Amino acid sequence: MSWTEDDQSKLDRLRDRELSGTLTQPEQEELAALMARIEAEEAAVLAPEMARLRAEAGELAVELASVEGENEQLAQLMAQQQALVTDTRRFLEELDRRRASILDGLARVAGGPLPAA
Q1: C-alpha to C-alpha distance for 109 and 98, rounded to whole angstroms
Q2: DSSP secondary structure string, 4-17?
Q3: What does residue 113 show for φ and ψ, rounded to 5 degrees?
Q4: Contacting residues for 38 by C-beta, under 8 A, at least 6 apart
């Protein structure tokens, strides 16, 4: 940045005059020019960092989309797993009913209750 102590002194003096309400038209123009110069120099200094931040934000957006996609896949797999557990419980209940029915049938044929296995 090419800002000097002299530039800063001018800016301070002009701002003081502006605050006191004694700024002339040429001084207003000089103040506007100094402010424009400051803004241009700041923009030039900040441009590389802003570009880096934009690139980083883009990379983070891509990563976020990827993670969201993985989360969706995991949610689908979890739903499938829950359905499998429900089906397995239902199957085991059916097997228990069938086993009990078989044991009842054997008890009737054998003439008495069978010992629990």
Answers
A1: 16
A2: -HHHHHHHHHHHHH
A3: -70, 145
A4: 3, 11
Most confident of 13-22, 57-66, 102-111: 57-66
Say if CB 41 and CB 3 are below 8 A apart.
Answer: yes
d(CA 1, CA 41): 6
* Residue pLDDT, tens place only, 27-56: 999 999 999 999 998 888 899 999 999 999
5-15 burial: b if 16+ Cβ within 10 Å, else e: eeeeeebeebe
- What is the DSSP code string of 36-61? HHHHHHHHHHHHHHHHHHHHHHHHHH
The label of the residue with tokens 């123009």 reads: 29
pLDDT surpassing 90 at residue 82 = yes
Cα 6 from Cα 29, distance rounded (Å): 17
Q: Which amino acid, 25?
A: Q
Quote the tokens at residue 46: 């900040």
The verdict on pTM exceeding 0.70 is no
